[in-house]
Amino acid sequence: MKDSHAIDLCSTALAGVGRLFVLQAAPEKVTAVPAERLLAYQQPVEGSGLIVVNRDLGMLGGGCYVALLVDRQVAARIGIGEEARLHVPPGKRVVGIGIDQADDTLCGKGRLRRELAVPVVAGESQHLRIVSEAKSGFDIRLATP
């Protein structure tokens, strides 16, 4: 009986290893991206919509910022457990993530480009998550608020 219990515990632990690298931050643990790393879309304009992006608490790439892109232009440099709020014009926006070109360490030397077409409606919000998983690497996905 002891051996079967140990095997069950090992199986459970191994099954969780692949998920260990991605943890969605609890709302009270999320911090705003500091102003110096918010590079665009900070002022609400008439008719704009809001894109809210949270980066999970993953270990993969945890010491690196990720470039948050809107229409393929850098809008923010986002770290783990941070949230960026961007006021963007309505319409289809290409929201993506890429390597932080402002980083001259190894973090800025890799390759990363993930994009998502996001419909933005005036006065409404779209919520997205940046995840980093051991199996598939970084991604940006629609999220529920």
Keywords for this entry:
9 strands; mainly beta; disordered N terminus; 4-stranded antiparallel beta sheet; 145 residues; 11% helix; 5-stranded mixed beta sheet; Immunoglobulin-like
* Global Rg: 18 Å
Number of helices: 1
Helical/strand content category: mainly beta
Q: Quick one: how many beta strands?
A: 9
The CATH class assignment is Mainly Beta
Provide the low-confidence segments as ranges.
1-21
Overall pLDDT confidence? 83
C-alpha geometry: globular
Classify the fold: give the CATH topology.
Immunoglobulin-like
* Through-space gap between termini: 45 Å
Strand order of the largest sheet: 1-5-2-8-9
Oligomer: single chain
| Amount of beta strand | 35-45%
Residue share in helix: 10-25%
What count of domains describes the coordinates?
Answer: 1
Q: N-to-C SSE series?
A: HEEEEEEEEE
Q: Which CATH architecture?
A: Sandwich
Largest sheet: 5 strands, mixed
What does this structure look like?
The chain has 145 residues and is mostly beta strands. It has one domain (21-142): Sandwich (Immunoglobulin-like). The protein has one helix at residues 2-17; strands at residues 31-32, 49-55, 66-70, 73-78, 82-88, 91-99, 113-120, 125-133, 137-142. The strands form 2 sheets. A 5-stranded mixed beta sheet has the order 1-5-2-8-9, with no helix packed on it. The protein has a 4-stranded antiparallel beta sheet with strand order 4-3-6-7, with no helix packed on it. It is globular and about 40 Å long. The termini are far apart. 28% of the residues are buried. Mean pLDDT is 83; it is low at 1-21.
